[in-house]
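Thread title: Can someone regenerate the structure for this chain?

I was given the following input by a collaborator and told the matching structure tokens would be attached. They weren't. Posting the sequence so someone can regenerate them.
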Amino acid sequence: MKKVIFILFAVFLITAPKFVSAQSEVIYAAFTDQLTDAQKKKISSAEKKIKSAEKGKKAAKTIEKKYAKLKKKKSKRKAKKYERKTWKAKQYYIKAGNDLSKAYTSIKDVYSEAINAATYYSKTDEDDAKGLDYECDEKFSEGKGKFKKYKGKKKKDLKKLKGKKILAEINSGQKLMEAGIAKQIEALKIILSQGVKKKKNEEDLAAWDKAKSTNTIAAYNSYVSHFSTGKYVSQARIKIKEIRDAEEAAEAARRANEVATANRVFKVQISASHTPLSSWLISSRAKNMKPLTDTFVNDWYKYWAGEFKTYQEAEAYRDTLAPQHGAFIVVFVNGEQTEVTDEMKGQ
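Best answer:
Regenerated them for you:
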């Protein structure tokens, strides 16, 4: 018989709801250095409340243990007597729950202040941290509802209530609040990561400024290689494309100019007449410059002296001629006379 009773009591201990212990994880020690003195004081006060709640739970368990024999009886009368005798334990449970609610709320308020006052170096991080804080609010709202239903209960009310039910509700509320603070701790971890991100952002900016000041494809490629997830990677790639396009355009222009220059000849026009001029006259005006060429176009005989690769060479020769004859420089590209441009003059 004693063996059967022992087994039944063991089953009761296993299946009966247990008061959830306040977890040390609700206070995030790694973040303590980031708090103000006033905030640290609130956390310290909350810790004391948590310890007080633990003492209350122990006192409640002592009372329950004292009247445990009544609980073993299958008599309804004995069961009711157990509920009446253990009203003080229920009171301790409720007070412990209220103390934990106040303590958790103080911790939550401190962490919420920190989350909203923090400096974030990523909009995503800020949204995530504040989103977690909002999720905490939802958990707390639900958790507090579990505690409120037993607030202000009188002795006569407690005698009628089932201790098992009170304990289950308080456990549920406590777990919700702890889950809420766990969300905030995730947010605090994001805040702690901002120091590393700040340093990385500063290094990123310094490298980008250096790449911009150098302004070469090699410099921008180096930036992208070392900061593949940096803020300015897309801008660096745009710059690389701009420089490459400009270099390709410059190369194409250079080649086109080479082609044009290779087929370009400057001459000095030394005379023009509606009637042909003697070779002696043309030669004297040209100061024996060779070759001498001429053409007849639009009722004009035109005479040119020399063939020069550059405008400067033609200009130097023209300046040796008698100014009264009005000699001037002309240009031929692929055998066709065309306009002398400022660009040609500078080449």
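The two ends are 119 Å apart (CA to CA).
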